[in-house]
Amino acid sequence: MSRIYRVLVTSADKFVPSKLRPLWEHEAGPKTIFFWAPAFKWGLVIAGLGDLNRPVETLSIPQSASLAATGIIWSRYSLVIIPKNYSLFAVNVFVALTSLYQIGRAFKYQQALKNKEEKK
């Protein structure tokens, strides 16, 4: 651990109410990367939600597929590690869902283009 990190945690320790102490001291609590990594990963979900307004012809199926696969793999992993990390599970489920939805949009668009070409 870095010196700065220890100073910050020690300083914050004094202000944590007794009711929140179990969360603070938890193996996957705010003192650990198990808390902060999923917290920052919500940025991917927000970006994915922003992409729902993106024109369908600009979507990348390989990119969406890799994000969906990552979300599915990490969702599973988050439930087999010790301690189980439900916040990591939740964020990865949302990463997978937004990516799978984008794949569906792109696939539907490509099928419509294909059908339009066949009618010509």
Automatic annotation (TrEMBL):
Keywords assigned by UniProt, alphabetized: Membrane, Mitochondrion, Mitochondrion inner membrane, Transmembrane, Transmembrane helix, Transport
Compartments where found: Mitochondrion inner membrane
InterPro entries according to UniProt: MPC (IPR005336)
Membrane topology per record: Multi-pass membrane protein
Source taxon at top rank: Eukaryota
GO cellular component: mitochondrial inner membrane
GO biological process, alphabetically ordered: pyruvate import into mitochondria
Any matching Pfam family: MPC
Purpose of the protein: Mediates the uptake of pyruvate into mitochondria.
PANTHER family named among the record's database cross-references: UPF0041 BRAIN PROTEIN 44-RELATED
Homology family: Belongs to the mitochondrial pyruvate carrier (MPC) (TC 2.A.105) family.
Protein known as: Mitochondrial pyruvate carrier
Annotated source species: Bombyx mori (Silk moth)
